[in-house]
Predict the 3D structure of the following.
Amino acid sequence: MSEVLLEARDLTKKFPLSRRRCVHAVGGVTLSVNAGETLAIVGESGCGKSTLGRMLIGALPPTSGEVRFRGHTITGLKEREFSAYRRQLQLIFQDPYASLDPRMKVRDLIAEPLVTHRVCETKDELTQRVLDLMKAVGIPADYLNRYPHQFSGGQRQRIGIARAIALDPALVVCDEPVSALDVSVQNQILNLLRELQEERGLTYVFISHDLSVVRHISDRICVMFLGKVMEIGPTEDVFAEARHPYTQFLLDSVLPPDPHRRGKSVRLLAGEPPSPVDPPSGCCFRTRCPFATELCASKEPTLRRAGSVEVACHHQSQPPSSSD
Amino acid sequence: MTQSTLEVSHLYTSFFSERGEIKAVQDVSMRIGKGQVVGVVGESGCGKSMVARSIMGLIKKPGKIVSGSILLDGQELTSLGENELCKIRGKDVSMVFQEPMTSLNPTMRVGLQVQEVVSIHENVSKEEARQRTLAILSAVGIPEVKERYNAYPHELSGGLRQRVMIAMAMVMRPRLLIADEPTTALDATVEAQIIALLRQLADNGTSVLIISHNLGVIAQLADHVYVMYAGHVVESASVFELFDNPLHPYTLGLLRAVSSLRSQSKVLQTIPGIVPNLAHLPVGCSFAPRCDKCMARCTSTQPELVAVGSGHEVRCHLTKRVDAQ
Amino acid sequence: MNPSENMNVVSVAEGELGLSSPAATFEEPASVLRRLAKDHKISIVSAIIIVLFVLGAIFAPVLTPYEYDSINLSDRLAAPSLAHLFGTDEGGRDILTRMLYGSRVSLVIGIVPTLLSVVVGTFIGMVAGYHGGKVDTVIMRVADIVMSFPTMLLAMVVMYTLGGGTANVFLTMVLVGWAAIARVVRAETLKLKESEYVEAARIIGVRQARVILRHILPNCLPTVIVLFTLEIPSSILTESSLSFLGMGVQPPSASWGLMVSAGREFLYHAPWLCFAPCLAIMAIVLAFNYLGDGLRDVLDPHLQSQ
């Protein structure tokens, strides 16, 4: 087993709405990320995966809990103390249109992290570093003085990636990096991310709602629902046999790009998603779960090991048959 | 052959800007039979949404339909004025957009928004309009309709809002429903539900035009598929024919890109290059710069759409040659 | 969050065609001029009028043979003629000459305090917006109070306590002017603060001051430029009103407001006394307004798509 790079312990994030009410975005997530691996965090919109991703790199302070990077607590540090970790923990944004300042040239956009952390001594060195980064992500060098709006979505995402890897980080959180891109461009970016990981020994936390992308890129997968981890384990094992009812539904709802497999596997999830303002008692998935019992309403299940995976379900010892 | 609800022939739609004419839709012909689901698939900027907007008469200045005809049950739509189009929109043809939040009025109860459609198109009593609204809301699978009728859009989940949009589109029992990326903003589990609902509408006799970039949605829902690239239809075939026997290099590339994602291969198949800018289209075939089978002819002459089998058409110089042999 | 969630249908459709990208906010000055010339011809005319006024003010001594303060009682209240294009006033001074010299005062008072208000207001607005919390609340309450206070009353208080004169006119106008600018810039900053590229800069580790300077300020600038051009006319009008009420520039110096004030006594038998300066005020105010409108349309991506 490789070394643990990043650990989250009982991370919670609440966003206050008014004096009494708040959104429970993330509720008590504990997980670890191993060096060199890709951990995918999947779940539907509002499940807290982006909030969790931002807390992992210290971009958002948790309400409670802590994050440890290489054994050092990075939660609650002052800006100066944190800046050493800042270089190690970076983020790739979902929207390549919104995440680049429209008034900056590519040269300045890619140089910004290098300038901020005073990595380069001379101007020539800086330009050289920028050119190297552009080459690494596949942006032609003669585009140095162009503005973001002169690029397509895929190229902009390459610029975003160059900014994220400029400081040689140890861990990069990729927040839905390909979901805003066209199908034919999406694979280019996924290939690029994989190449960069191999060349630079990067560790990824890959946030996505697209299970086929996740299956391709990740080593381990963490399924979230309403701010809580439902199931976590090696990607192959989870896809081969999902233990948690929610994971099963999620896998079933993938529409296969094959007309011969039409309507076969579609099992529809009943009811409406519960509100993160007023989450259900006990297991947060119970209001939509066909296997829910009284136990599920009274006691919240904790993550328990079942073979190679960990599952938060009271009934996981007798997994409901998925043959129907 | 069944009678067709919609017949689009040789449609050209352009936008006229200071940079010149931008040809968003070029020579697009398509046919939708009664109760048929037709899919249009393509990437951003391929003109698929513009086809939908042309049919709805929603092309705004500086754009306009340059030529071509759009027949809805034999009635020509391109020659109609705005007033006549208003009578048809929402009643005979209706449209569901991608984003259910911005398409609903946030200050109006959803029930009233659906009911408004009825009272605009038909002179009925308030009570009858209300009854019809409640009926359609439950028909599209909204639970506890009486309570939801009085809800505001923000009180509903994304899936329910999209159902309200579909209810609005379906309340007049239109002959044609156009769904422009109806599930793109929704979660996977909700997407499956909406696809099932659209399928059910088609089975009840509504013709559906579904526009999507998602090959999964198209494979699950469409009977016949048009693949668009840079304003042109590059291939059209029945859904089985298209997925089993794709002929255009672009279709092939798309299907390979999607299927390699599902395979064990480490390196994913891609289509090199970027989607072309419609303002600077290459001479000849617009896919030529990205095509791995590009020949000299491809960069000089625009290929024609040729039939290669029953209902299967391809716009590629390669196919033409195969066909001629 | 879906990227297209905030786009309306029109912009999605146009974005697909590359007609207007979300980043179309960026403009080189030359391209701003080109687009103004194309879609807003009236603002080019306005710009030319403004330049003419400025040239007139600078070259006043060259353009006219008369002195602005030389009294010539034999020529009192002369009607417009070839010798005196706009006639003469009660002291026999050439009105055109006084207008040209007066435009120095009016333009300087129109532009300098407005520029000061814009600089002060932008700074305060950005700090309030970016900081939030108590700083924001205090600054904005002060701005509310300033804006609810009648301008003329405040001006009178300043003038009576500190005396008249150009410097005090400046002071009054900045005291009043910053608040409206600060409000708009604060709102803009609040929006930009939440934008992904500001978050991206923070995740890279860029410090607060630099985020404000590098990311917030440049993206506020189009708004600020538009506000600047739209505030100038109201400054010119304020100066005119103050001078009209006798609290601004003191005779024998000339300013347009002062000239209107002096001319009103003779409104019936020598209307040209008021006519010319009124026309000048109207022309410059309209010119700045049209230029501001044009710039707003060209620089604001939200109005562009319509």
Q: What stands out?
A: Confidence is low (pLDDT under 50) at residues 319-324 of chain A. Chain A touches chain C through 32 residues (CB under 8 Å). The longest helix of chain A spans residues 183-200.
